[in-house]
Amino acid sequence: MLAMVVDGANQVVKVDVTGLSYRKLNEQLRQLVADGASRIELLNVCGQRYIGTDLGGPVELVIYGTPGNALGAFMDGPSITVYGNAQDGCGNTMNEGEIIIHGHAGDIVGLSARGGRIFVRDDVGYRAAIHMKGYGDKKPVLVVGGTAQDFVGEYMAGGVLVLLGLTLGEGENHRASFIGTGMHGGVIYLRGSVEDHQLGEEVGRAELDEADYRVLEENVSRFARHFGRDADEILKGSFIKLFPRWLRPYGQLYAY
Amino acid sequence: MKTYLPSKFVVERDAERCIQCQACVSQCSFDVHAYDADYNEVTSQGENCVGCHRCAVFCPSGAITIKRNPLDYRDNYNWRSEIIEDIIKQAETGGVLLTGMGNDKGQRIYWDHLVLNASQVTNPSIDPLREPMELATYLGSKPDKVELDSDNNLKTEMPPQVKLEVPVMFSAMSYGAVSLNVQQSLARAATEMGTLWNTGEGGLHPRLYQYADHAIVQVASGRFGVHPGYLDAARVVEIKIGQGAKPGIGGHLPGEKVSADVSLTRMIPEGTDALSPAPQHDIYSIEDLAQLVYAIKEATNYTKPVSVKIAAVHNSAAIASGMVRAGADIVVLDGLRGATGAAPKVIRDNVGIPVEMALASVDNRLRQEGIRNRASIVISGGIRNSGDVIKAIALGADAVNIGAAALVALGCTICQQCHTGRCAWGICTSDARLSKRVNPDIGARRLANLLRGWSLEIKDMLGGMGINAVESLRGNRLQLRGVGLTDTELDILGVRMVGC
Q: Residue B191: its pLDDT value, please?
């Protein structure tokens, strides 16, 4: 592995990780962070899993190539930017930090996330944002520039999910089914439209109010900054809000 | 709708003994007893009684007797009263029958059909009062071989090991299902006795981090309370795939139990049902399990064993082999009689297999495949006494978990009302008033006493067999014989019939 200090004053390190196993890669990352690196650029990343999983603090990771599954799983603070696509399990049970994907992401993006923000420029796979949580100030956010596959937002218990539909054609609906099935907390903002049959039974739809727009604007602005888009242009689209109709979707299921 | 359900119990109050002190009125959380000030009389409504004995134990004058209601249907082996009453309940509610605790049906309890050996004449038994007797067990993956350098120092890198002073741990019982005082009692007893308690899937309350060094923390499908601090604090991290009381399904902690404090620990809104999906949505295969196992190992920098818990089901042996190959350092098998805070009754009573059979077949399979050293085996689900523990170890377990037995030590009388959240013993509830009934000082004492008693008994039984270390008994099935079992059962257990 080639670790080259590019800018000693700002502790920027570039690393070519060709052929490196994930275990060795993460060992090196822990060491570099312990040595005070503030920005680490990983070159030629090719399928290494769990990148950034055990890093705390404010370090900035920049990934060129294709990171493997579980990118930033359980992550607690760093920011990760990927110039490429992310695979499955990106941001799984993430606690704090930011993940920015300049491309697509696979299945279960942000599963059970507890905090932090994930921005995906294009589309995501199945079961995105399942069981995202939230409590007090901890509010995970997933913004997807394109659209998602089935079961997006299933069992959501908190947090904010935004689907911008920018990869869809003019007037084309989102295609996911079972959106928000079992949802009992949090909120989904969806640009464009969906048919009722695509929504889980537990999901209601509503117009956005002022408070919703404030949350939406903040997150769309961040999205636009990350990917060089025009936030105002995106926000001109028509949005709907999806919310849990009941706190206790399965409260009537049982006999005592 | 008028209910057709008859009373299960009759509450008798001895008028000569009753002093109208109303202790029973305040102790009962099921509204059986009431005080009538006009007549200065305490009365009881037996139809509400669940048979938990809280009032009878706390009655200062011993005035209360609880009996099974003698009212009975005409004898019918097919249409027993429980079956009739279940239908009545569903006809009146249209819901899934919910229950608590473990399977109460008559499937064979194999522990009761296994007997232990003892030394006579040809080899001496060991007196544990005079000779050292080792109960320590090390959980974790063991290397295939160890190498020493020229100075006899260990060259092989050892995977993380956890030492148990006694091979009995406390089963996973989450905060929310049981009260914080119960968890604190378990945590303190485990710390004192050198064993482990298990947070279950509800996260670790801030007040219990001081006991995290003796905690197994769970990562389950709901991922409640899972964050780096939680993983870092723990001694062992456990991925919960299934539970013996409800294999194949998730869990719904009812909104009544999601108090402000439970909401904080689980990070879900107060008053919502805490929903644990049936599968973990990042685990649809052995390969996916390996991914989460190694995600946790990466997140904790390979400093602690990762355990994987499954319910004992038909093909447990093949599944366990996959789990070990997926990197599990500890395999936990939870059997048919494993208990729960709430489960659909039809699943509790009909799904899964007895843990004795699962243990024997898993241990056997891992040995045949030459990977038994790569994981410890822990079993749970109906362990009642030290006899069950020592038989489990002889069948191949490294250690056992106890859940119901630990709760009985705290006062539980197995009344099976855990799912109501109204436990009069203050155990399986998040009600602030009821929770105070378990005093962690006394609770920890009672639990430590139980473990101490079992330890002494295990040493006695070991010594009787002429064995002075529990690790020497593990998988030593020659110390077991079967009574009243078929050839097939004996074959699966790997145990010979008594007399041969």
A: 98
